[in-house]
Design brief:
- Strand 11 and strand 12 form a beta hairpin.
- 8% of the residues lie in helices and 48% in strands.
- The model has no long low-confidence stretch (mean pLDDT 86).
- It is built from one helix and 16 strands.
- A four-stranded mixed β-sheet has the order 4-1-7-6, with no helix packed on it.
- The protein is mainly beta.
- The longest helix has 14 residues.
Length: 175
């Protein structure tokens, strides 16, 4: 009886699933963008799918994909398929309280449609009312991908180099 159970377990381990054999694996692009990717451990071939296209390849279970120039997409994978999706977009209003125009970036490269993109925020100004001045922050609306808690970095150039201006910015999420 013990031998039977041992043989059954070994048989299931090697033949009970598709882990050890290639099978039809469907890859779908449910994103709004064209996606280019390679499949790890399957050579250097690069596959390209337009929005709403799909292909079926002979692959093992749960292959890993490397996307080419598509930082705003992600994929979900199952035993027999994988689907590419757009990352969520979040809109923020950035306020610049510095009297210099500043350039912002996001620590993880999630700002703008381009990986490691930057945005320029206008300088703060001041309005005069009699003998008093009221500062008015420079503002700009930006898009950040895949996070509701971005790590913004900011700087400006003062002629002698870059100056950290992160402490001069504030931001709020816009619904």
């Amino acid at each position: 009886m013990k031998r039977f159970i041992l043989c059954a377990c070994v048989s299931l381990a090697f033949f009970g699933c598709n882990y050890w054999t290639e099978h039809n694996f469907e890859i779908k692009n449910s994103s709004s963008q064209t996606v280019s990717f390679s499949i790890n451990n399957y050579g250097d071939d690069v596959y390209t799918l337009k929005s709403n296209e799909n292909i079926t390849l002979k692959l093992y279970d749960h292959p890993k994909f490397t996307m080419k120039d598509n930082p705003r997409l992600f994929y979900k994978s199952s035993v027999s398929s994988a689907t590419f999706y757009d990352m969520e977009k979040y809109t923020f209003e950035i306020s610049n309280n510095c009297f210099h125009e500043i350039t912002i970036s996001e620590k993880n490269g999630l700002l703008t449609d381009t990986y490691k993109g930057t945005e320029t925020i206008p300088a703060a100004t001041a309005t005069q009312n009699g003998n008093s001045y009221t500062p008015v922050a420079g503002k700009k609306t930006v898009v950040v991908y895949n996070t509701t808690t971005p790590s913004f970095e900011a700087h400006y150039s003062d002629g002698n180099g870059e100056v950290d201006a992160t402490s001069f910015i504030t931001y709020k999420k816009i619904d």
